[in-house]
Amino acid sequence: MIPDDPTSPAPRADDGIVTAGFLVIGDEILSGRTKDKNIGFLADALTAVGIDLTEVRIVPDDTDRIVEALNALRARWTHVFTSGGIGPTHDDITSDAIAAAFGVGIDHDPRAVAILTARLAGRAEINEARLRMARIPFGADLIVPANGMPGFTLGNVHVMAGVPSVFQAMVEQVVPTLGGGRPMLSRSIDAKVGEGTIATPLGAIQKAHPATVIGSYPYERDGRYATNLVVRSRSQEALDAAHAAIEAMLADIHSHMPAR
Amino acid sequence: MIPDDPTSPAPRADDGIVTAGFLVIGDEILSGRTKDKNIGFLADALTAVGIDLTEVRIVPDDTDRIVEALNALRARWTHVFTSGGIGPTHDDITSDAIAAAFGVGIDHDPRAVAILTARLAGRAEINEARLRMARIPFGADLIVPANGMPGFTLGNVHVMAGVPSVFQAMVEQVVPTLGGGRPMLSRSIDAKVGEGTIATPLGAIQKAHPATVIGSYPYERDGRYATNLVVRSRSQEALDAAHAAIEAMLADIHSHMPAR
């Protein structure tokens, strides 16, 4: 839901669940030239404060594609993060695309110009291209990392750099201020058997513990199949109950296995 | 455009450009527990054969979300790849979601059952859970990697494992059969100056060479800003002309810089 004032923050969901989408902007990720490092970093940071990352999209440096994806994501999730496309060159079109998506104007922002001027003093001239980095949509709040030029928050959208070190500094600054939901708790179990051996009893345990989500992640080591099981829940009680049921199931399976 | 027969391959675009979308299915990527390795691998493999990866989406293990994203992607791009959710456990719902998206039935596939039986012989019993991996939508062709259970191709959708080693084997098997487009050519230039110094002349070069896409990727090394410039084009002539213009621009800038 987009509120009437397009730049006002999204409402907090009544059920205590806070969601987020992430829009990665960059031809270089889609071509394979650059390998993304920001998705995993943001996922970890959000999980740590109890915000559910519920969708990621990667689109090229194309205004129409950015506007379309951004509007889909900001209408659906509590928060949206973007990465990439806020530098000084011709292919940096994110800020203008965000303004277009919100239907607001954009111009050189005095706060951003002041930061840019201070940061560049004695290092580089303030030319037209560098001033492009101070173009901020009307109504936005700046995100000012110690190690880069400003990003901004407009409504429920947080616009960040693509360079991982700057992206990470911005995430560490913004995410703790958002107000997380009831945190998702998790417990992991390393099962020394393949998925196919435990899938049927595991499915029964999932059915019997509907307040949990049980994930099953197969891996192979030294030629033997094994499985990482991860139980997640917002209820500690439900989490512990499902965890105990899985431990009991695995003990039962091991007691019936032939000695190696 | 979805063809009338929902399982027939997508038509090749007239302009010689072949596109692809990638749907990553997995709670574990969104929670940060697992860091994705498949996006970069697929991007490299597609770029190598002249197919443009134009969109990536990551969604949770949720049937409605998978169906919605898959239908959006397969209607828009020449090919769609999926990764994840084709194992034997209760959280592996991709094959059923694909069948639902196409509106076709799904059942144990005799070809897949035969492969499963042969692979598991002497290693593990064929139980109901393992047989789930042989559930294949009607009308699909199998993708059979040497190191895992089958995936499948249905219409323009290629359904693959999430485990990177199996995903990679499937990509190496499928992508070379697809018929690439006119390949995207590229040349890189390592500019020893920051983006802000070259942004204005670089923008002019981009305007003068519309058959190319010039990307600018800043980095910092030993406390100095520098920029990787990447020129891409489907025309060798246009590529070389833009590359020469950038080299001349950089030589001009360096001739005006003070000695270090």
From TrEMBL, chains A, B:
- Enumerate the InterPro entries for this protein: CinA, FLAD1_M, MoaB/Mog-like_dom_sf, MoaB/Mog_dom
- Cite the MoaB/Mog domain residue spans from the record: 21-181
* Coiled-coil portions: none
Q: Which Pfam families match?
A: FLAD1_M, MoCF_biosynth
Q: Which SUPFAM superfamilies match?
A: Molybdenum cofactor biosynthesis proteins
* Gene3D superfamilies named in the record: MoaB/Mog-like domain
Q: Which PANTHER family did the record assign?
A: NICOTINAMIDE-NUCLEOTIDE AMIDOHYDROLASE PNCC, NMN AMIDOHYDROLASE-LIKE PROTEIN YFAY
- The protein's name is Competence/damage-inducible protein A
Q: What is the lineage of its organism?
A: Bacteria, Pseudomonadati, Pseudomonadota, Alphaproteobacteria, Hyphomicrobiales
